[in-house]
Amino acid sequence: MLFTLNLSHPITYRPQEHHAGEIFTLEKGSEFTFCCRYRYEDVFLTLEKKWCGFRSPYTQKEKEMVEGGLTPPQRDGYTLSIPEGKYSLLQIPAPEDEKEILRQARTLPVSKSEGDLYIRFFKENDFESVMQIFLPL
Questions:
Q1: d(Cα 66, Cα 72) in Å, to the nearest integer?
Q2: Of 25, 26, 68, 126, whose CB has the highest number of CB atoms within 10 Å?
Q3: Is 73 exposed, middle or buried (0-12, 13-18, 19+ CB in 10 A)?
Q4: In a domain, 37, yes or no
Q5: Bigger pLDDT: 109 or 31?
């Protein structure tokens, strides 16, 4: 399903390499994100990974801050981010195969022939993980 999202503060990550299927093995509340350069050439879409970042689960104190509408303090070493801004957001169950990422990215309504997008994998609980694709508007 496609949504419009206004991200009011950046989501930050520390540099660390991951692959799509790894989300199923991580601790609940963990996430990682790929920043990719997309390019359409005729009808073909290509994605080139620029960086990958990891975010460990929120601490209890950070959870309380978020639930209270506050932004937790910046974590040391978390130098990468999905910037604040307005996005088209596609959310689906996390695929085990990175080929599925490209297939899903093709469904997004892009207005430019190239740009950056963010692919976020989030472990919601012991049995569910999601993939979100953030396309800047």
A1: 7
A2: 26
A3: exposed
A4: yes
A5: 31
